Amino acid sequence: MTDNYLPRIADASLTRLLRSSGAVLIEGPKWCGKTTTAMRLSKSFILMADPDQHLNYQKIISAKPSLLLEGETPRLIDEWQLAPILWDAVRFIVDKRSAFAQFILTGSSVPLNNATLHTGTGRISRYKMRTMSLYESRESNGQVSLGELFNGVDEIKGFSNLTIERLSYALARGGWPQSLNLDGETSLDIVSNYVEAIVNKDVNEIDGIEKNPTIFRKLMRSIARCSASMANNETIRRDILGEDSTISAPTVSSYINILKRIHVIEDLIAWNPVVRSKTAIRTTDTRHYVDPSLAAAILRINHEGLLKDFNTFGLLFESLCVRDLRIYVESIDGEVFHYRDSNGLECDAIVQLKDGRWCAIEIKLGSGEIDYGAKNLLKLASLVNKKPEFLMILTGTNIAYRRDDGVFVVPIGCLKN
User: What is the pTM of this model?
Assistant: First the structure.
């Protein structure tokens, strides 16, 4: 357990899940802090990726897998997917003991289909862990609470000290815990190394089949160029054709699925509300990396480059905001979507809670498009049968306030859950 641990929003969420579940599975990308957080909540652990114990663990698994599950509870099984049979063993023991908070499992990839015998429904809860939000990395002061806005706050105030330069750096560095205590270019090396590990190692481990790293790199670069857009697989394939005419549609689909399995990309699904008009609602997902720093790294653009290319900066800023919103919203029992209809009306983020309450959020890096964003939000609110709790423009600016039309303007450097 590290002494410089920064509290995570996941801490409280996982504690709550353990109170009502026999086991909790923490899924998420490598290096996002799953193991560190899980070890703080566990009383014993086993690290399946430990190379010194690998052969010993395999012998035990082939003889009696349940031996690896013996220990004080909650017991952490780190990187359980390296021995998928442990899933069924955990499920069986949870049934047998009939008690909560027995196991915590972490996984950086999803095993191949049929690797386990049982889904774990009713025994094993799932939690998606991501990289750190700006509030968790202490770059947002948290003066505006998303949860409080849903509870009826009418007025807000706040001032973000996050300058555009610091914001570009935070984006390029990403929310990787290991990078937060490093300075300058050293912190940026973390995400560059991560991308190289993905291309040359991680994508091969998912199914044991060696992939072409050149094609994979081109695919990831294309996805980065399509950040915050509704580009489908065929659009991405056509984009890659300019660099490689040999890539096929099945290869693109297969490779994108692998990136999802290792939690590198996490697309934003479309919202489908009941609207007053006969407008058709588009159902294509919006493309996003799990952390915008991955897109910046694969495009080979650093924080200084972003300040010279505000088009790319704006697209990746939207991904950063979506990342933070997902982290915040999950802690208040909600989910994030996007909206677009056949008339071209779009909304970058829709937050809907389990009780049906919702809000609409437009994401604008600068102040120049705030009026346009507010107009879009008000139009969307007029179309949906159920009234939103509030409307928000999430920005890279500094001052939080409520406009005369009721729309909140909130700097990302002021937001928290």
Answer: 0.93
